[in-house]
Amino acid sequence: MKTKIFLLYGGKSAEHQVSMRTALSVIQALDFSKYEVNPIYITEEGHWIKREALSSPCQHVEELKLAPNTPTVQRMAVTTELFDHHNENEQTIIFPLLHGPNGEDGTVQGLLEVLDLPYVGNGVLASAAGMDKVIMKNLFAEAGLKQVKYVHFTRYQWEIAEVAAYEKVETAIGYPCFVKPANLGSSVGISKCKNRDELITAFQEAFQFDRKVIVEQGVVAREIEIGLLGNEDPQCSIIGEIVPKKEFYDYKAKYEDGDTALIIPAEVSEETYEEIKQAAITAFKALDCSGLVRADFFVTNDGEVFINEVNTMPGFTPVSMFPLLWKHTGLDYSQLIDQLIQLGLERYNDKKKIRYTF
User: I need a labelling partner for 225 at 20 to 30 A (CA). Which of 21, 73, 243, 261 fits?
Assistant: First the structure.
C-alpha cells in the first residue's frame, strides 16, 4: 500500500513564492509508485485548498496554484478531511513545505499535533524558537554557544523611544550592523547599515515584516553552513560556504539573480570542521529539533567560529544549500526526502509511547 502524503505549500507569508518553488521540486522528486501525493495549497490570504491527488509530477509552479475564482474553504474543513483520511489501515504523513510565519513557526505544527497527524520536520517548540531569532539566540547563549553581539526591539519600544533605540545600537553594537525582522527567513527585510541614516531606513524596512527586530554586529567572516538530519541522534553533512558577490546574501542573491557562489565542500581545517559540527549538534539539541536543520556559522580569518542561526525548514529546492550539502555527503534529493518522511513517522511513533492518563 502506498504511503499517503499531504503536501502543504504556499502560505500566508512573505516567503509564499519560495514555498511554491520548494513544493514543485519535492513533487518532481517523489516516487509516485511509493507515495500517493495530495497537494494542499494555502493562499496568501490563508485559505486552504485541497487539490485532487496527483497522478504524475507537475512541471511548472503555475500548476500548483489555482485558477481565478476557484472556491476556497476554511482551514478546519480541510483539516477535518485530513483527519478523516488518517486511519490505522493506511500510512499517512503531512509534509509542511512552508517557509516563514504561519507555517515554519510552529503554528501549523501545533495544528497537526492537535489533530494527531504525523508530519515531517521540526515540532512546535523547535519551529517556534527557530523562527524567532531573539528567542533562538537567547537559547544559544544559555547553551554556551559563541555568537556575535545582538540587541532587539519591539515596534512599541521603537515608536516610543526611536532615538534611544538607535543610540543603543550604536553603543552596544556599532557599525557595520545588520537589522533583521526577528520572525522571517530567506533574507527578507534585512539591511546592512554603516551609519545612522541607513539604520533609520533599516528599522522602517524591517518593521514592515514583523513586530520585533534584531540588530546584529557585522563581522568580517566567511559564511559557512552545515546540514543536520535525524531525531535523537542527528548526523551532520559536510560543510559549504556562501560567497555572495554583493555585500551580503540577500533575497535577490538567493532566489532571483543567482549572484552567489556556493562552495561545497568548504575548505576549513579539520579542527574547525569539528568545532562547527559540535556547535551545530548543540544548537539542534538546545532547540529540541527533529528531522532537519541547516545551521549557519561565521568563521573569521583567525579561525574564530560564531553560530549565526539555524533554519528549521531551510531552502529545499535541489539547488538550495541544504539538499546540496547532503548530495555531496552521499544522499541525493529523492533519498533525502524519503529519509525525512521516515524520520517524521519515527518521531510520531515514539510520541505514541507517551501516556495521557494517570
Answer: 21
pTM of the full structure = 0.88
pLDDT tens-digit map of 197-227: 999 999 999 999 999 999 999 999 999 999 9
Are 41 and 25 in contact, with CB atoms under 8 Å apart? no
pLDDT value of residue 189? 86
The CA distance from 71 to 89, in Å, is 31
Of the candidate CATH numbers 3.30.390.30, 3.40.1120.10, 3.40.50.20, 3.90.1200.10, the domain formed by 3-119 belongs to 3.40.50.20
Candidate CATH numbers 3.40.50.2300, 3.30.470.20, 2.60.120.560, 3.40.640.10; the one for domain 130-145+219-347: 3.30.470.20
Exposed/middle/buried for 341, CB within 10 Å: 0-12, 13-18, 19+? buried
The segments of the chain whose pLDDT lies below 70 read: 66-89, 185-186, 246-259
